[in-house]
């Protein structure tokens, strides 16, 4: 059976477990199978441009060494670290969760809002959205003010996500929300119920696209 490898570029196993649990609706008879791994060389959380740049080399090494074992690769960090570099070293599909999460959001609403972890993450994300050419569809991006390793505090994290999501909906006109960190994966269903608008968990969006690429044998340029 074909297998999709989902790479968490930070070294926090709890984040990988949350991503793996979020894959449950996408696991189906006949596959592709979905395997989630932690990049042990990564920082506990990818929160700066230096963190983003620092995980590219070990990710390239991982993909080169294991390319023959997998049908597609998903980079499960909202900064899409090394996305284009990894695409250069494999002919297999490589998808970034930020790119896929945003593209999915564009099909669900006119204006999307992004929930970031930290204020300092937002300029980095905006550069990526600018390169994608979608800034005119962005309602706003707002932070919860928690680092990646703090997201496991469910009560605090979910409460702040609801507050930020409500502000994006009510004050900025967002009619779809993108969760701006893979560490938020476990909160998608509850957040969507609380906000009453679609909430995109970008790891799910990317793996969903990877499944289509594998099953339909679509090859990228």
Spell out the blueprint of helices and strands.
Blueprint: E1 3-8, H1 13-22, E2 33-38, H2 49-54, H3 56-66, E3 72-75, H4 83-89, E4 94-96, H5 97-106, E5 112-116, H6 122-132, E6 138-143, H7 154-170, E7 176-179, H8 188-195, E8 199-200, H9 202-216
Parallel strand pairs: 1-2, 1-3, 3-4, 5-6, 5-7, 7-8
What would you say this structure looks like, in words?
This protein has helices spanning 13-22, 49-54, 56-66, 83-89, 97-106, 122-132, 154-170, 188-195, 202-216; strands at 3-8, 33-38, 72-75, 94-96, 112-116, 138-143, 176-179, 199-200. With 221 residues, it is of the alpha/beta class. It has two domains: 3-96 and 203-216, Rossmann fold; 99-202, 3-Layer(aba) Sandwich (Rossmann fold), CATH 3.40.50. A four-stranded parallel β-sheet has the order 2-1-3-4, sandwiched between helices. Strands 6-5-7-8 form a four-stranded parallel β-sheet, sandwiched between helices. Helix 4 (83-89) links the parallel strand 3 and strand 4. Helix 5 (97-106) crosses helix 9 (202-216) and helix 7 (154-170) crosses helix 8. The model has no long low-confidence stretch (mean pLDDT 94).
């Amino acid at each position: 059976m074909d297998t999709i490898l989902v790479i968490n570029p930070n070294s926090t196993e709890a984040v990988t477990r949350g991503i793996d649990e979020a894959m449950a609706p996408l696991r189906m008879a006949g596959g592709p199978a979905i395997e989630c791994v932690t990049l042990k060389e990564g920082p506990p959380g990818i929160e700066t441009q230096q963190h983003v740049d620092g995980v590219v080399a070990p990710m390239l090494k991982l993909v080169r060494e294991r390319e023959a074992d997998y049908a597609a690769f998903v980079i499960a960090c909202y900064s899409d670290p090394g996305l284009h570099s990894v695409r250069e070293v494999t002919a297999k599909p490589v998808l970034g969760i930020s790119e896929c999460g945003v593209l999915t959001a564009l099909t669900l609403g006119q204006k999307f809002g992004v929930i970031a972890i930290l204020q300092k993450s937002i300029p980095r994300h905006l550069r990526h959205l600018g390169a994608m050419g979608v800034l005119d569809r962005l309602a706003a991006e707002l932070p919860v003010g928690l680092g990646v390793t703090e997201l496991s505090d469910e009560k605090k994290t979910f409460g702040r996500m609801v507050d930020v999501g409500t502000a994006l909906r009510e004050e900025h006109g967002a009619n779809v929300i993108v969760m701006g960190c893979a560490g938020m994966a476990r909160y998608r269903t509850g957040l969507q119920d609380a906000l009453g608008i679609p909430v995109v968990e970008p790891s799910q969006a990317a793996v969903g696209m990877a499944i289509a690429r594998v099953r339909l044998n679509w090859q990228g340029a």
